[in-house]
Structures are given as C-alpha cells and as structure tokens.
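Run Protein-serine/threonine kinase through structure prediction, thanks.
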Amino acid sequence: MAHVQRPLWIQSQFIRQYCPIKTRRRTLPLVTNGRRCLTTATVTDNDIARLASQPLYPLTLADLVKHGRPPLTTSQLLTSANFTLSILPARLAHRIQSLRNLPFIVVSNPQISKIHSNYIHSFSTLLPWAEKEIKTLEDEIKFAEVMADLVQTHANTISILARGFLEARKYISPKDVTRFLDEHLRARIGTRLIAEQHLALHFSSQPHNDIMHETEETPGFIGVIDTKLKPAKIVQHCENVVGEICELKYGVRPHVVINGEPDYTFAHVPVHLEYIITELLKNAFRATVESGKERESIEVTIAPLPEIMPENNGHEDGDTRPNIKNTDQGNEDIASRAFTKNASPRSSDQMLRLAHSTPGVTIRIRDRGGGIAPETLPHVWDYSFTTFNDEQASSSLTGRNSGMDALNAFSGPGGDGAHSLAGLGYGLPLGRAYAEYFGGGIAVQSLWGWGTDVYLSLRGVGRVEE
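Sure, done. The structure for Protein-serine/threonine kinase is below.
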C-alpha cells in the first residue's frame, strides 16, 4: 500500500481507544497535533427524512470481519470504507428522527438538545460523502478523519442523556425513558462499532504506522474484534480491577474461581465483554461482601455454546439457527415513534439468522450474596436512575454517592467513564444490550436468602479465513 501520512490527531484518538496499554504508554507522548476542521454540508429536513426512510438491517460480527485480516490491501481497505459509508448515514438519520419524536419539552432540554446537535454535526460530516464512492487512499484517509471525529463527538452521549432525562423527568414517564434509552443506546452500539472497526482496519493497514502492527499482544485481531478471545483472561483481568477497589472500600475481597473450559476461545469484541463482566462481577462482589459472605468464593463457569441453541428449536421452516433481530439492535425506532401519531414501526422486525457454525460461550457467575429481593428483581433491567429523587440524582451525577462508587468508574466501550455514570443503574440493562446485540443475552436466576446465578451468553463469528 502507498506510504501516505495521516494527521496525527487521528492517531491520538485511535491510540487512546484501541492500542494495548503497554503500546499506549509508549506512543502517546509522541502524538501532540490538534484536531483539524472537517468538510461539512448543510443538513436539511429533507436529507434527514430521505435517509431515515431507509430500513435498517441487523449487523453481525461476520459483517465486520469480512474484509479480511490486517494489513488490508488497498482494494480491501477501500471496500471497508465504502461498506461503512453505505450504512452509517441512514443510522445517524434514524437517531436524529428518534430524538425529534420525543415530546418537544423533552427535546428542548439543553442536555438532550446537545445530543441532537452532536448527531446533526456528525450527519453533516457524512453528507459530503453520502452520494459518492471512496476510490483512492487519499479519500479513505479523509474519510477516516470523519470516523475519528464521529467517535470523539459521541464519547459522552450516555452521561449527557442521563442528565437530560433526569432534568426532564417531570415531562416523561420512567417507563418511556427506559424504553427510549434501551432502543437509542442499542443503536449507538452499532454506530460506534462500525466507525471504530474501520478506524482499526485503517490503522493496522498502513505499513509506515507500526504501532498497530501485529505483535504478541494482539495476534488475533481483525480491527477491534479478537478472533482468539479467551473469556477466562477477561474474567481474570476484571477480577483484579474490581477486587482491588472492593478491598480499598471494604478491606476484604472475595475470591473468584474459574472452572468449566477456561482455555476456550472464540471471536468477539473484547471491550464489550470486559464491560459486561466488570458489571456482573461488581454486583457479585458487592452482594457477597455486604452479606458477610466474603469467605465464599464467587464461581465463574465457562462453557462453549452448542452450534444450535436449544431455545431456538421451533422455527416454522425447521431452521434451528440462532437469530439477531432489529429490535435487539435498536433499529426499529419503536420507542420514539410511540410519541407521535404514527406509532407503528416503519418496517417489519427484520431477522437475521446466524450460521449453524457460529460459535459462542455461556459464562455463569454464581455468588452467595443473599440473592435479589423479590420486589427488586422485576426492575433489574430498568435504567433505574429514572426513579431517583432530586437528592439522589444530584449525588449520582456529581459522583457523591455512597457505596462502591469507584466500581462505576470504568470507561465502557461507549466512551463514557469516570464518575459520570456512577450509581445511575446502567450496569445490567446496558450490559444486556451489548450481549443481545449480536445474538446473545443475559439471564438472572436469584434465590432470595441464598445467592444469584447470572448466565451470560455470547455469539461470535463463524469460520474466519486465515
């Protein structure tokens, strides 16, 4: 591939998000350039309506790895750029329409209005590209700048939306907020992942940029997807981080025992799994310590999923493959359209069946922390901040909550971190959204007075060409 220099501000943004910790520490001091301006187009209502009228389709991990292993050839990299360009404008238009469908007094809130403005900005940077094909490396580099700007622009979406809905909660019910957020944040997962995947392929396909060349640290990566992801390794990492904070807060830490098949590997997005496991271990650690059972081990069992999941045996056409639905990925705009007269979904719930050979994993996390109270269990999937009173809301958004708040201070795969999400009740519902996005799920079995079993299932990618 041609030796083409990219603006360093893209490198800076990318290194922070994707490079291994050791690499990141070596290279960040070398990156000092600032952000440059991008070409934008004026966004009209017709532009939004035209692209928002396009139906969206489920996305699979296989779609993201189909361009091949890095370093990509010029042709493969341009194909990846055009694939990304073919699906992002419509997804942004759907999100803008979704926000506009909210009650006007809610959209007028400064925080929610800021999110709307961010989407308009990103849409304006994509419009100049929407009607053309990327044919040269120079154009691909400029397009990568747009992707880097999109990722950076929406880094704090979740915390801003949280504050906005807290401020507007007098004008919208908690149930409607939960439904809207679940749909909006699921759609956001796909938008960010599509942009991040092309950025990762972009950087790993430039011969003169050696910071992302394959090393012993990242031997199986295709973009942001690890084709040799070992769940046990993620569990061990999360145990160390959560355990240290637990010990700092309580003076003790439970022990985690990993059994089943700890050497099992499959293909998935590591930062997604890390976020989910962190949230599940955080809950298990807290329950275990606060119930006085810190001497009881937390048991993590890793079991490969069968190629055909039994719960999906029953398709009328006899096809027993697992599937991904548009509703799992927030593509139907059902929640937001409920606020308008045209409340029916724009298109039928598209369903994409995964290949029989698609591997996956089930991870069971079992604790002896006393279980979940019966009155609480029905609400574990709610974005629970919607029920906060003023004092609780203020404390959560300023990081002053009591308890293990530090356990919420993780930067998730969506970019939000620090204390911005502390205590807001995002953990389980957002974790389930990440799990369900590619055909997995989370199930909770609680025995009140005894403990809780959480079952996390994830589907990966089928056979990846070497």
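The chain has two domains: 8-212, 224-305+359-459.
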